[in-house]
# Entry
Amino acid sequence: MPRKSPRLVRARLSDRQGHDAVSTLLVTACPGPPMCSAVHTYLYVDGLDLIARSFDGATGGHPNQLLRPGGPLYPTDQARNVDVAAQGQGTDAAPTVCIRIRLRGRTVIWGNLMYPGADDGVIEEVRFDLPQYLAEIERGYSRWGGGA
# Structure
């Protein structure tokens, strides 16, 4: 039986419940030892771990680095690429999970994605409502960043 290739799906607003539907971001963090080797951030998009689903074995960067006020996850009108995976120390190259973040009106767009969605279709882009997105980044930083 031939192997089915994954179905490519662009996660557009029209692919969801309606044209007004957007993704939801949830930020959590691993506290580090003894749970794992270092503190790192989890970025859940619509309940799915974006980093782990993008690159098996990758972990998120430290909350102080990713979530700080004005930091890499804060959107601007100018699109930019952000590596959300933890950077390795020494000679081992850490996996990279690079997303393109841009702001369009009151919508934050994450593009250049390539991870399996809940239906195993490939997610290439997600959109967030700006107030929910900023509130979640700020909540994550206040809970796990800033020396916490």
